[in-house]
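Notes continue from the previous slide.

Worked example: a multi-chain complex. Inputs as given:
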Amino acid sequence: EIVLTQSPATLSLSPGERATLSCRASQSVTTDLAWYQQKPGQAPRLLIYDAFNRATGIPARFSGSGSGTDFTLTISSLEPEDFAIYYCHQRTSWPITFGQGTRLEIK
Amino acid sequence: EVQLLESGGGLVQPGGSLRLSCSASGFPFDKCPMTWVRQVPGKGLEWVSTISGHGASTHYADSVKGRFTISRDNSRTTLYLHMNSLRVDDTAVYYCARRSPSWGPPDNWGQGSLVTVSS
């Protein structure tokens, strides 16, 4: 099983600041890595797929990078609605897995 | 517009059974693999099962293998999750989600259905 480890567990920032979230895989997932945003009481929303492609309707302030085992989700300038939990996800091999999440909170 | 609507959740005793349904619309259902993902309230996401568009290929997490069965009725554009021998640690919100025909990541999710296993 490919284990995804996200860091930090919690990130405290202010609106307008830049957020950098990390996801490390226990073995290579090439670029089969996605990022999701989840707000309380809501289903996850796909932000980034194939490591760096923005999903439909996702603002340009969200960007993804990386390949192999190390990946980054960057939010260039935080908006109030961006404070949420973020999960990475790999689909390279079964079982497909998710990271444990990074909580992005308002400082 | 893609729509996924789960139903069938509720309270069940340990050892009991339940069937979740996910009614889909707004996309070519028979072309898309479908997935169940669950989430214990306040915890992270756990993949449960995936089925191919034609239904011939299925995959399960070890935690549910032998107890849960995923199926689909393409004529009714409905996905199912049959859950048997339920345990307390199966308590979670269960989401159905669509994958693209090219087996991309889940890109559209339902609102979730809460399953509570308790005596």
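Summary box: Chain B has a mean pLDDT of 97. Chain B touches chain A through 20 residues (CB under 8 Å).
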